[in-house]
Amino acid sequence: MNQKQSGFEATNLGFSYDGKPILKGINLKINQGEFVCLLGESGSGKTTLLNLLAGLTKPTEGYIYWNGKEIEKPSSERSVVFQDYTLFPWLTLLQNVSLAIKKTRKVKGNYAKKLAEDYLSLVGLSGSLHKYPFELSGGMRQRGAIARALSVGADALLLDEPFGALDPVNRASLQDLILELCRGAKDRPITTLFVTHDIREAVYLASRIIVLGSTPGRIIADIPLNFSAKKNRDEWFRNEQVQETIKSIEEAYHKDVLEKLGHLVQGGASI
Fold first, then answer.
1. CA-CA distance, 74 to 36, in Å (whole number)?
2. 36 forms bridges with which residues in the sheet?
3. What does the pLDDT average to over 173-183?
4. What is the pLDDT of residues 194-230, one digit of tens each?
5. Three-state SS letters, the chain
6. Per-residue pLDDT averaged across 234-251, rounded?
7. Residues whose CB is less than 8 angstroms from the CB of residue 239 and which lie 6 or more positions away in sequence, other chains included
8. Please, which pLDDT band fits residue 16 given cuts at 50, 70 and 90?
9. How many CB atoms lie within 10 A of CB 50?
10. Residues 109, 189, 149, 145: is their CA dihedral positive or negative?
11. Range with the lowest mean pLDDT among 52-61, 123-132, 186-195, 202-211?
């Protein structure tokens, strides 16, 4: 593969577990700086695909590349944010982020601390540097996890339903934060894959949406979003193009369900 290519590329990618196919025939390219939302219902393999991109899991079929090199293991170039925050509970926010910086950037204590303070300030946590995760709300813990993920200098950010457990106010706030940090970064665009099952969240965040069907997971829609700039949420979701996109995703899901039911009937299975 050409070493000059940037971003992710998957070729005939597949993954099986105990003989059961989870993903099958995934051919996908995510260019540098794209913000892609990966949509799919439970069991469609969204998290499995994210883990493959992160290097946490190896494919059983096909190949997957990052910047032209085959992904064989995790790398600080590709940072992951999970739904359950994954902050060390025995460390303060500042210590959590400083430790990540020391491990990945190989810098000394004082400089790591200064960088950690900068990243925590970036996500609005400058007043909570010395608090432990148990002292923080869910939204604040997730901000800390995002700060830690960004602090290692990664070129790619992989987020696995990071706001799924949050209340609507915190969720909306963090959606806007991610937009500002990832899609608004002009000097160093961050290639972003954001896993969600929420169609409205995907349409609000993404520059492109990939929809997975299930059993096994495969791409059933690939939708670029080239809408006008957002002004406010209410106005955004009243936009005719946005409404049409939501409808087209719902139709892709519906078509996928009908096709699966048809295969079951043809195969003589009871429904």
1. 20
2. 193, 208
3. 87
4. 999 999 999 999 999 999 998 899 999 999 998 766 6
5. CCCCCCCEEEEEEEEEECCEEEEEEEEEEECCCCEEEEEECCCCCHHHHHHHHHCCCCCCEEEEEECCEECCCCCCCEEEECCCCCCCCCCCHHHHHHHHHHHHHCCCHHHHHHHHHHHHHHCCCHHHCCCCHHHCCHHHHHHHHHHHHHHCCCCEEEEECCCCCCCHHHHHHHHHHHHHHHHCCCCCCCEEEEEECCHHHHHHHCCEEEEEECCCEEEEEEEECCCCCCCCHHHHHHCHHHHHHHHHHHHHHHHHHHHHHHHHHHCCCCC
6. 90
7. 227, 228
8. very high
9. 21
10. positive
11. 186-195
Assess contact for 57 and 137: CB atoms under 8 A. Answer: no
Strand order in the sheet with 191-196: 78-81, 156-160, 191-196, 35-40, 208-213, 218-224
**Phi, psi for 202 (deg, rounded to 5):** -60, -45
* Owner of token pair 């493959």: 52
